[in-house]
Design a protein that fits this description.
The chain has 712 residues and is an alpha+beta fold. It is built from 19 helices and 27 strands. Helix 1 packs across helix 3 and helix 6 packs across helix 13.
Length: 712
């Protein structure tokens, strides 16, 4: 059972809400003002019989006065407060911060999960738990929710926005969201709950986490040293993902405010400028209880809601563990229309946008984004525990559509998870010699002096981990870079890899991610955080980096990338084998005819095969990587790679390609290589079609030729 608030602060707030003074209450109770003052200041508490009289004076029941777990419901009811138009006639077409991000649930997952990581309560050592709930409302359930958010009061404002929608981007989005709700009779809610987080602490207006999120723009008040956010923009993704511009909030505080911790509720609405009944409104609105301390008691502030209210608002939390629930009303996912899963054959002439509100597709994209961006934060090993747990579930009118799915990093990123665990467990090796191993290197990040001074503050040894790739990892031969909060910041390929390297995955740990005791970890964390743009998806030149260090400070990061790529190449390069080993046998089995360079016509020099590597694949196919030397010429002829069986006599049987792909310096079109103008070398890969092999692969020898034209 929830503990009640101290009597003094509770009574003081109820007097404000009911508009009574201490003297007026004392007169109604036929007591002295000093007695009421003593209750307010906590020097004494009223007798049980007096509690009954206080309840009558406040217009509530005696149980509410005794338990003090909620406010009285008299005086100033919960309502929407709309910010009046600017006195100088200025107009805003929406919140500019929301335009920094797309209406994309994957961007939302990245920003909100990062914020939850930053607000994790670290002293108990437990991870922050973040759950995403998609909930589609229809019929009577939708009607009840509209009543709970006081839709009738909001309708004139939405109508005013719709009338000017043709002239405003935000207005067009809002108008489409309202039409979808009424014409199709459905509304998608997306709730993000975090547990073991700080919650929205602090006053409604003064400096604190609550005001930074609910009242202000471009303000970031993060708890941790290695926080991911620094611009105060990430919260805008919540409103950007709402087609109605509405987000409701229920926070359980880690530090009491007004003597309370549970069910601190507020709503914020982001609309463009509008005129309703001849009165202009600036844009934002807040759902809350009118603040009696403001002029005319018009400004709405957060209120301590009862359990029934948060249930009607779909904001019920699972426990009293600190954290915050954000409910996005009218969630949509415009970016999902760019995905390959969209059926392009569907007739959309009626303007249907069902795709952006498909709860199953949104569920899938949320799981994908969480596994891709936060696999490291969800991985533990050795003495290091996971920082994060995430899950996604999908409902329709309270019934389960997709069961709650906990994101498992070993499934979404098996190779990288293996690499990070090996580092935590201390089981890394110097070089990869067997399957499943993880190679370890340190690479230097030379930190510059601040303030534009020349020189180096110190060298931070970032940690590089390399291991073999698995199919479930997605794109292979990539480096994932991260720092203290263990969210993937940068994903990049490695240029100039040697021919025929085994597919790999690499992880770069910098700042606190490399270890708290690593030299200059704190300074590296600060430097790299400043080198991130608002999207936190790369390290490079930023205004903050220039102002705090110098305009050339980003060269240190470029140098780090060079060091990382060189270390990766050294770790994945295949060691040279003795003449009798299997690699040499395979190379002998694959030959290239050595001839005088062929010429076509007068002075036309053809491209020439210059390097080869081959192996027998798991399915018995030949897997070949070839490099082509390109002559200097304004235009190079198309060439066809042809693979033949080498036989003692007769014509050589030609094998078909099951796969033929370009790697660098060329393109493949219908089995023909077309070379990039100006390139001096080109690389391609291929695999033979096992179905066309006349004998077992291990018993064959191949000849690879490069023929002009279509190779007939």
């Amino acid at each position: 059972m929830e503990a009640g608030e101290d009597f003094g602060p509770w009574l003081a707030r109820q007097l404000k809400l009911t508009g009574k003074s201490q003297a007026e209450l004392a007169e109604e109770l036929q007591l002295t003002r000093a007695a009421v003052s003593a209750w307010i200041t906590g020097r004494s508490v009223p007798r049980p019989t007096v509690m009954e009289e206080i309840a009558k004076a406040l217009g509530t029941d005696v149980g509410t006065v005794h338990t003090r777990t909620t406010d009285t419901q008299v005086g100033l009811p919960v309502t929407w407060y709309h910010r009046p138009g600017y006195p100088d006639g200025g107009r805003d077409g929406g919140n500019a911060a929301a335009f920094a991000f797309d209406a994309d649930v994957q961007v939302l997952a990245r920003e909100t999960c990062q914020n939850s990581l930053d607000e994790r309560l670290v002293k108990n050592g437990r991870p922050v738990r973040v759950r995403y709930t998609l909930h589609e409302l229809t019929g009577e359930v939708l009607d009840a929710f509209r009543k709970a958010i006081l839709w009738d009061d909001l309708h004139p404002h939405y109508s005013a926005v719709s009338q000017t929608a043709a002239h405003q981007k935000v207005g067009r989005v809002v108008d489409a969201g309202v039409r979808d709700m009424f014409e199709k009779g459905r509304l998608v809610l997306l709730r993000i709950d975090d547990y073991n987080a700080s919650g929205l602490t602090g006053d409604d207006y003064d400096d604190g986490k609550f005001a930074a999120v609910v009242r202000r723009q471009l303000e970031s008040l993060k708890s941790g040293r290695g926080a991911g956010g620094s611009y105060g923009l990430g919260k805008a993704t919540l409103w950007a993902t709402s087609a109605l511009g509405m987000v409701l909030i229920n926070s359980t505080l880690s530090v009491p405010h007004e003597g309370r911790t549970e069910r601190r509720v507020i709503g914020r609405l982001e609309l463009p400028w509008r005129s309703v009944d001849g009165r202009p409104y600036a844009g934002p609105a807040w759902l809350g209880r009118p603040d009696p301390d403001t002029p005319g008691a018009e400004v709405a502030r957060s209120w301590w809601a009862d359990e029934e209210t948060v249930e009607r608002l779909h904001l019920t939390r699972d426990s009293d563990e600190p954290g915050t629930s954000f409910l996005i009303v009218g969630a949509h996912d415009v970016a999902s229309l760019d995905q390959s899963t969209v059926d392009l054959d569907v007739d959309d002439e009626d303007g249907s946008d069902d795709g952006i509100r498909d709860i199953r597709a949104m569920h899938r994209r949320l799981v994908e984004a969480l596994g891709r961006d936060f696999w490291a934060a969800m991985t533990g090993g050795g003495s290091r525990l996971p920082l994060l747990e995430t899950s996604v579930r999908t409902l329709r009118n309270g019934e389960v559509v997709i069961e709650e799915e906990k994101v498992d990093p070993t499934v979404t990123q098996p190779s990288r998870t293996r690499a990070l665990r090996a580092f935590y467990d201390g089981t890394t090796v110097d070089r990869l010699t067997e399957s499943g191993q993880v190679a370890f290197r340190t690479v230097p990040l030379r930190l510059p002096l601040s303030g534009g001074r020349r020189g180096t503050l110190g060298t931070h040894p970032a940690v590089l981990l390399v291991t073999e790739a698995e199919d479930a990892d997605g794109v292979s031969n990539q480096v994932h870079s991260l720092r203290g909060n263990r969210m993937t910041i940068k994903r990049s390929g490695v240029a100039g890899l040697p021919l025929g390297v085994n597919a790999f995955q690499a992880v770069l740990l910098a700042g606190h991610a490399a270890g708290e005791s690593v030299p200059f970890a704190e300074e590296a964390e600060e430097f790299l955080r400043a080198a991130e743009p608002p999207e936190h998806d790369r390290w490079g030149q930023t205004e903050e980096l220039t102002l705090r260090w110098s305009h050339t400070a980003h060269h240190r990061i470029a140098r780090l990338t060079t060091e990382v790529n060189a270390a990766v190449k050294e770790l994945v390069a295949r060691p040279k084998r003795a003449g009798g080993e299997g690699g040499a046998k395979l190379r002998k089995a694959l030959t290239v005819p050595r001839r005088t360079v062929a010429r076509r016509g007068a002075g036309v020099v053809l491209p020439e095969l210059d390097g080869l590597d081959a192996e027998i694949g798991a399915g018995g196919e030949w897997r070949i990587t070839a490099e082509v030397k390109l002559p200097r010429a304004e235009e190079l002829p198309a060439m066809t790679p042809v693979v033949l069986l080498d036989v003692r006599s007769g014509s050589r049987p030609r094998l078909d390609w099951a796969e033929l792909v370009a790697v660098d310096g060329c393109e493949v079109e219908d089995g023909v290589l077309r070379f990039t103008p100006g390139a001096r070398r080109a690389t391609f890969r291929g695999a033979t079609d096992v179905a066309g092999h006349p004998v077992r692969t291990a018993l064959t020898r191949l000849v690879l030729e490069l023929r002009a034209g279509k190779g007939e």
